[in-house]
Amino acid sequence: MLLDNEHRRLYTWTMYIDVVPNRNSPPAVLLRESFRVDGKIVKRTVANLSGLEPAVIESIRAALKGGSVSVPLETAFDVTRSIPHGHVAAVLATIRNNGLDRILSSRPSSKREIVIAMLVARIIHPVSKLATATAFSGNTTLSSIPEELGIGEVDENDLYDAMDWLLTRQHDIETSFAQRHLQDGCLVLYDVSSSYFEGTKCPLARHGHSRDGKKELLQIVYGVLTNADGCPVAIEVFSGNTADPSTVPAQIRKLQQRFGLSQIVFVGDRGMITSARIREDFLDTDGIDWITALRAPDIQDLVHRGLFQPSLFDDMDLAEITDPERPRERLVICRNHQLAAERRRKRDELLAATERELRKIVRATQRERCPLRGEAKIGQRFGVIANRWKMAKHFRFEIRSDHFSFRRDEQKIALERSLDGFYIVRTSIPLEKMDAPDVVRSYKRLSRVERAFRCLKSVDLRIRPIHHTREDRVRAHVFLCFLAYHVEWHMRQCLKPLIFAEEFEEQARIETGSVVQAARRSSATMAKIQSRESIEDGLTLQTFHGLLDSLGTITKNTILPTGKSGKTFEKVTSPNKVQAKALSLLGVRSLV
Question: Which of 158-178 are b and which e, b meaning 16 or more Cβ less than 10 Å from the residue's Cβ?
Fold first, then answer.
């Protein structure tokens, strides 16, 4: 094994030149190191120096003994190749320590190794499959991935074949994840997102509600299931025009039938678990409880029926009520006063901006030269402004062929203002199983699924844009990105002490106080972030990908002793303190 600097300080370590006789050949001149481990002397050959000139060998011997060097050491060796290796070792260690390689397939195969290679490449540097195949080529390799996994020369067709194989394994892989990360009675978080699509030929690609702001492009929709901690368990792809609520029944069947869970608490947002979904998919389904939230019109209806008064929440932020129209539900009313102030400020700004634009229409209808005329033209101008900031609901207006006027609807504005900062969490869980603060806390855990979407869609894994045209390839691409996020999630958990992440969630919860308020980092984590140093070791903090890039500077070097008969040997760069700590946290046992 190779020893890093830390181990060399711990053990008695010596490097020397050893001359080993050969019977009918010149003696072998070896550069060796020796050290004690648990009282035993361990020797390791670092390089064969037999091909060097005697003067060079003597210079190295003198240098090792602390004497003068007559021949510069830098002329004794040539580095013939140097490829990034540390980040590859880190990701591979995470995959193997978590048993993902065995979950993919219990038997090693070329397809399994290629899939693992694509996973590592997507975490380190996500690019297209063609670019990935080029990066695996011997002449253009960008890392030690091909060498570490022994995949040899591969092209894009080999990658596609491996993706096809992976898709056939999705059912079993997700079942294994569920057995590890889900159990009866646990919280299951579910949310849906979409990604735009390049091309028009895939059956899954449809126009729908674009969360990427690209309404002109086709898209696909996908839903992710995670456990309460946000660890991804399963993903499913739907056509781009699929409504969020219609994806829920398939997830319930998956949890009960495929994963064999008899008791589940299903958590989804207000646009996912609607009243219709509750009636059709939850009320008559044994073993399924749910947590979601009411929409704004439903909250206004509660106020109108006198079931709660917003003014009562000036001095409190949480209360539980019942609704005769929802006899099998609990309603937990929450008010975030900071959020209320922010929404009020933003609304006032948008109202003022809308009024400025509407006055321009009034002036256009009143000008002497080329006045704006016609109900259609005036209405078109008004529609553009109304859609810009979504403030039309707060105005009353009059449009005639030669006239336009408007005024604020103060009654509607006052009603909306009175509900600023309010949200109501609804659930079917009985009080004896979960109190009101825990219900709210469970609902707010959905932010962990949103974090998964940010990683999948942004610079981390780049699930988008999607270029595949075959439906099965699109599903395989999404599942590959999902598996990459599964690995990244575990890496982030291990690397929390070295990155800008919360290490003390329980302390943060206590210091935040009320569960209704926005989550805050713990004081210890804030001190870590402000000092930019780890708490335990005082090491420099980095972002997750910054730390990966730093590990990438640990290279695997092929070294050739000067001389025609010299034999090459490999030497891995010794990690610095931050890199050594990161590798230790990830369970990397050796960089050889």
Answer: bbbebbebbbebbeebbbbbb
Within a domain: residue 36?
yes
Domain membership of residue 393 (yes or no) is yes
Considering the entire predicted model, what is its pTM? 0.84
Range of the domain at 367: 338-418
Strands 264-267 and 288-293, by their bridges, are parallel
Task: Give the per-residue pLDDT at 3.
Answer: 46
Q: pLDDT tens-digit profile of 419-450?
A: 999 999 999 999 999 999 999 999 999 999 98
Characterise 403 by phi-psi region: left (phi > 0), alpha (psi -120 to 50), beta (else). beta
Judged on CB neighbours under 10 Å (0-12, 13-18, 19+), 467 is: middle
Q: What are phi and psi of 331, to 5 degrees?
A: -115, 125
Separation of CA 82 from chain center:
30
**Does residue 6 have a pLDDT over 50?**
no
Q: Is 293 exposed, middle or buried (0-12, 13-18, 19+ CB in 10 A)?
A: buried
Is 565 within a domain? no
End-to-end CA distance of the chain: 7
The answer as to whether 358 is a domain residue is yes
If one counts the domains in the chain, the total is 2
